[in-house]
């Protein structure tokens, strides 16, 4: 029995001295493995006399259980120590200020589109959309634009390529969002009040023009719509968009193929210290085109011009964004300069809201 006591003391000392899981596993194998010291002693029981086996058997089984319990306790202690060390290494003071994160912003064009939508929705207009690649009929013919009109020439319009022998009607990158008005009339009929914001394309490029830009057009159709209602709608829009108490508009006779009569619209303004002031001063600035919908356009949309009439207007979203927010160069809208976007961009959650103010 003395050798069992010595073996017990030796193994327990090795268990206590094991400094990591690998060392502890080596101790376990040396003691309890198939060729371990205790396992070999248990195999020797078969060659003992009954009296020796009766004394040694229980002692070895008790030793085996004690060593197994010691190994488990030591393994748990090592795991706890490893977890404590890991937690200490990964410790983070949550009371410290948060690290600044990159902050995205809303592009001025997207912001102005949302502002336009909020304003006209308050006046009962819904948003209509259409394809950016349009047939020649929707983009020109349905809008009463004659075949000889300059807009139908390749120096002004992007025509889609057609293979030799292709007799299908030509398609273009839409030059305005007016085709959406035709589609809305065909789909919804009359009465109708819609705006059509979107991307359009023309062969033009300078400080105030780009080959791709954004427009919004409005259309209202009913049985007794007049130019007076068009004037009120545009005045209310300008007052809300530029966030001024009063505006003064001037209508000048003009010509658009899709409206009759047609009018360019100017707004009273002044330039003070390089800043544009809307609704005051002695200057006038043209901001949009408008007019009463031509009867041929109503017919193309499937509406009887003897029963219905309407007004339409269109303006450049990029241009009014430049006017409202003091952006000097249209080309910067499309250069993806992060510095420019951070300066002119809008917070993602500051959605336009008429009661609270469009540009808070």
Pick out its properties:
40% helix, alpha+beta, BirA Bifunctional Protein, domain 2, elongated, 360 residues, 11 helices, 8-stranded mixed sheet
Summarize the structure.
This protein has 360 residues and is α+β, with helices and mostly antiparallel strands. It is 40% helix and 21% strand.
Task: Tell me the layout of helices and strands.
Layout: H1 2-17, H2 21-32, H3 37-43, H4 50-89, H5 108-122, E1 126-127, E2 133-135, H6 136-139, E3 171-173, H7 178-188, E4 192-201, E5 212-222, H8 227-242, E6 249-256, E7 259-272, E8 275-278, E9 283-293, H9 295-300, E10 309-316, H10 317-325, H11 338-344
Parallel strand pairs: 1-4
Antiparallel strand pairs: 2-3, 4-5, 5-10, 6-7, 7-8, 7-9, 9-10
Question: Can you characterise this structure?
Answer:
The chain is of the alpha+beta class. The protein folds into 2 domains: 2-89; 108-344, BirA Bifunctional Protein, domain 2. The chain contains 11 helices and 10 strands. It has helices at residues 2-17, 21-32, 37-43, 50-89, 108-122, 136-139, 178-188, 227-242, 295-300, 317-325, 338-344, and strands at 126-127, 133-135, 171-173, 192-201, 212-222, 249-256, 259-272, 275-278, 283-293, 309-316. The strands form 2 sheets. Strands 1, 4, 5, 6, 7, 8, 9 and 10 form an 8-stranded mixed beta sheet that branches. Strands 2-3 form a two-stranded antiparallel sheet. Helix 2 packs antiparallel against helix 4 (50-89).
């Amino acid at each position: 029995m003395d050798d069992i006591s010595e073996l017990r003391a030796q193994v327990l000392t090795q268990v206590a001295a094991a400094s990591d899981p690998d060392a502890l596993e080596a101790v376990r194998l040396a003691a309890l493995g198939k060729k371990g010291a205790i396992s070999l002693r248990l195999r020797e029981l078969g060659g003992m006399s009954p009296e020796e086996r009766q004394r040694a058997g229980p002692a070895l089984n008790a030793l085996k259980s004690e060593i197994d319990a010691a190994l488990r306790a030591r393994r748990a202690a090592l795991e706890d120590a490893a977890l404590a060390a890991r937690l200490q290494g990964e410790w983070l003071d949550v009371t410290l200020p948060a690290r600044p994160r990159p902050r995205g912003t809303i592009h001025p064009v997207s912001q102005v589109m949302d502002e336009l939508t909020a304003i006209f929705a308050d006046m009962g207009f819904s948003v209509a959309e259409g394809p950016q690649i349009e047939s020649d009929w929707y983009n020109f013919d349905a809008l009463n634009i004659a075949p000889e009109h300059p807009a139908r020439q390749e120096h002004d319009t992007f025509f889609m390529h057609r293979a030799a022998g292709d007799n299908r009607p030509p398609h273009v990158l839409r030059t305005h969002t007016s085709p959406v008005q035709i589609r809305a009339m065909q789909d919804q009929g009359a009465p109708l009040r819609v705006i059509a914001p979107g991307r359009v394309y023309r062969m033009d490029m300078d400080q105030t023009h780009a080959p791709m830009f954004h427009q919004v057009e409005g259309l209202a159709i009913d049985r007794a719509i007049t130019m007076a209602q068009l004037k009120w709608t545009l005045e209310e829009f300008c007052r809300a968009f530029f966030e001024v108490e009063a505006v003064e508009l001037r209508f000048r006779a003009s010509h658009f193929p899709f409206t009759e009569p047609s009018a360019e619209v100017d707004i009273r303004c002044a330039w003070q210290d390089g800043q544009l002031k809307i609704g005051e001063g002695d200057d006038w600035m043209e901001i949009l085109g408008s007019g009463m919908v031509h009867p041929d356009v109503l017919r193309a949309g499937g509406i009887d011009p003897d029963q219905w009439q309407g007004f339409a207007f269109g303006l450049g979203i990029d241009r009014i964004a430049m006017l409202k927010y003091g952006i000097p160069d249209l080309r910067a809208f499309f250069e993806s300069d992060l510095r420019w976007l951070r300066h002119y961009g809008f917070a993602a959650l500051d959605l336009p809201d008429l009661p609270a103010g469009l540009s808070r």
